[in-house]
Amino acid sequence: MRWIGILPLRLRMLFSRGRAARQLDRELEFHLDRQVAENLAAGMSPGEARAAALRAFGNPALLRDQARATWSWSTLESLLRDLRYSIRALLRAPGFAATAILVMALGIGANIALFTVVRGVLLKPLPYPNPDRLVTLYERHDGGGSLGQFNPVDAGSFYEWQRSSPGVEQMAMVSPFMKYNVSTQRGELPERIDAGWCSWNFFSILGVQPALGRTFVASDDESSAQATVILSARFWKRRYAADPAIVGKTIWLDARPYTVVGVLPSWFVYSSAFGGSNIQAWTPIGHDAPQDLLRTFANHEMIVAARLKPGVTLEAVLSHLAAVQAQIKKSHPDPGVHGAVNGRTMLDDGVHNYKTPLFALLAATACVLLIACMNVAGLLVARSAARARETAIRTVLGGGRLRLMREGLVESALIALVAGAAGIGIASAALQFLVHFQPDMHRIESVRIDGGVLLFTFAAIAACALFSGLISVMSTESKHLLGALQESSRSSRGSHSRALFRKTLLVLEVSLTVVLLAGAGLLLKSYQRMRGTDLGIPIDNTLTMRVSLPEARYKEPAQQVAFFEQLIARVRALPGVEAAGLISTAPGQGWSGDSLADIVEHPLRPESYLDAHRRGADPGYFAAARLPLLRGRIFASDERLAHANVAVISRSAAQQLFPQEDPIGKHLRFDFNHQVLEIIGVVGDTRWDIHEPVMPTLYAPIYGNEYNSATIFVRSPHNVESLALLIQGIVGQLDPDLPVSDVMTLRDTIGKSTLDNQFDSLLVLAFAVIALVLAAAGLYGVLAYLVTQRTGEIGIRMALGAPRPQVLRLVLADGLRPALLGLLVGLAASASTGRLIVSMLYDTRPLDAGIYAAVAATLLFVATIACLLPAWRASRIDPMQALRTE
Amino acid sequence: MGKPSDLVQGTLDLLILKTISLEPMHGWAIARRIQQVSGEVLQVQQGSLYPALHRLEQQGWIKAKWNESETGRQAKFYSLTAAGRRQMEAESANWGRLSAAINIVLGEA
What is the pTM for the complete model shown? Predict the structure, then answer.
């Protein structure tokens, strides 16, 4: 019960310490006075009495301190005192304080920003109930390269899986590739939106409750049902002004009426490896998809989302489904049918493209932070060197080594704290910038500074403080007290060990900088290669835009052809248009489906069928695109509708199918609809995506062959963007309810698809530059410090006849040696870790001699400049002055 | 009388507790009383007295109060707490056992 009694005392000690101190003084004074009085009574004179009393009393200051040492909270008191001293010391050296804080703030800020992104994108679970039970299922097509590993599923296989999958609670099909024309209803413009088809139970699998209305029920998912649609919150707010009575209203998609049955909550975003984050409307797949698509085993347009039963693993489900799929392949031996399955968690599905780049960036920021901490540690060591005499005196007077260490730690903790606060500011600014720059990144909506991030911040601050403080404090040696106390320190072994310490730090800093520089160099080279990649056609001054004719208004192929022909004729008539054509999908603008084809004249084995992109083109397209004709001819204008069974193939298709013979006149048969086309010409290759290798392509006439959507391809001698509005006007004249979408130049297309790579490489380059500046500053600091320490020695050398250039070379070599060592270590480290970012590189090998040479040259150049100033100053030392200051 | 012997910290605490168990006293009076009662054998150094007093106060064995002293000036008077009284009795008993044991050993030798 003692502690209850002493509680009031403890509180008094904490809050009115000053008063207690004054009381102690009075107590001691009282004692002294009584002693003096006793001495006077014993007969001494007043002076003697006082002197004798003081002698018996002892040192009042020491007495006071010893009494105070027994008080509670004394550790806290000395900690607060250390804090006050540190603040004063930092305010006295504003240059050092500002530099250290700024350097560390940059490092901490970058790490906080990136950690927030990594946490939001990769680590946070999906916002659905029991998200670890959600998986995405695919088929595997081993002949399809990397894209075939997670291949979309065909509806036929899906229904088989649904029939026999014991470990799965529910599964649903999703097709996030759809687009719909939304018609004008109240005078607003028609627009084309991204949409998704899904099974009726898709939202209940995820566990998403609608914000308005309801989600689909089984009866919606039939072809005979009334057309229903569920809107995304963003679309509802934007186009329908958040109309609270939207449920039950009709909207027109592709010129057909759809009843709105519900609106999704605003936090809901569907992220998958095939996109979907921009889906504005969902419709039931059983109703909207063509019936043959729902029965085929060879056409793969679906992603399967599934919720596993509790306790069931993904592997178990996959092995079961593998057996089912193998059976399907056996009973449908079509080459378009795949025989294996694959799957991953839904979280992994959405973000796996970002894993490597994000972790690479995180490693880069960690490097920068390490360099920053080492720089600050170096600065602290320099400061402690300047205060060596003060420290020595304090140690001699009885200050414990632990106390002095604690003071050093408090100082670095203070710097880290202020830097951390500034770092949070930098991080939130950087995050705003990121959200603005990359709004399409998956799960960008969950990137937020929250409690977890703040916790990370504190941990980072503490780690920095400990790291910088400990290594700067450990460098002080109490063994060399005597040397520190002496005026002249010619045998300055204490400063030598400090210098060695700082040099070691420098080697590490330089090696980290080299790693960052190498990484930045590789990414930049990869990006350059990517930008320089040929799409197959000249891309300057080209404009593309898409129109899609709704089946409800353009039922007959003749109607579609008539529209397109009128459209392209009017576009060609515009002033400023050099050439124009129609193509179903332009080069660089996406996959747009592939088809398998067999040669009629000498049939191939099914595994060797040609897997080609099928495109529709009008006769004028090839000239507009400047796609070179290599053999044969282009379509004639009467090769359309019923007479449209001709094809122009690309060079790679010709090489694959007809390596030794002339392809002209041969016939190809398509596997999915058994259509036979005669080959009439061979043109050059194009790429469907700037990152991917060339794929064989086949062009059929777009006037016929059931093409109801097309890309208008326009080439102009200059200023092609100005034509966009004019062309949209032409479309509007021909059909006021027809929207135009994806208006962009080919250069924009490439820019959009290389945006990620550009962003990553620029970011790493920025880090590398920061690291280089920090390393150079560190190098300069160490060398300047060394020169100051060795002033006497240099003076003696000069007095003994050493020429100035020799002194310059001496000091320069001393500074460049750690830089060189750091370079070698850094290059070795880059060589061994380069493998890790291979997936981010395009046409660039991680062990690139050119890049390494460039990095080495840059580093040596910067290092030489950093060392030059102190070395030059050393060579300018007047030996007389140097010797006199000893 | 030989040189005054140094007092170990634990025994100083015990002496202080015993001295103020009869009546509250200030530091000067405690030192004087110990000196007197021991016949000038035990001299308490000021350097150990006040740290001991403050430590005992922080630990809760004694409590302090400012009062008017015999000279008319204000002084800090220390007195025992209940816990302090129990501690004093326990320490006294310990000391008795310890000194008896030492005496036996010395008697043997």
Answer: 0.73
